[in-house]
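I'm stuck. Please check this protein.
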Amino acid sequence: MLVIIGLFLFAGYNNKQVSAPTTQPSSTVASEMARTTTYVCDNNFSVNVIFSDNQAALSLSDGRTMTLLQTPVTEGVEFTNGDGSFIFLTKGPSATFTENGIVTHNNCIEPKG
């Protein structure tokens, strides 16, 4: 009986509430969520893409670079520049580029890694 009372008293003295640690969002979280890939298209055209935070940073094999924002579409994932003159549309492992309303590069494939 004394042992039980002793344990009860010991547990009472050590009954401290511990709060859960809080974490602050950091810029490294966003960078950890970024995904980098390359699409290879017909005519030796390719593009390196970094997807993050509803945007895509493109580095085209013709030397152009641009950052496009994700826009809502019913199928696939679409990224456009401010005026919609450049559209990068992905559907699974494939992508299409449209410039000024004309498809300039299609049959772009993300090689299996």
Q: What stands out?
A: Helices lie at 2-13, 27-33. The longest strand covers residues 102-109. The chain is about 15% helix and 45% strand. Strands lie at 35-40, 46-52, 55-60, 65-71, 77-80, 86-91, 94-99, 102-109.
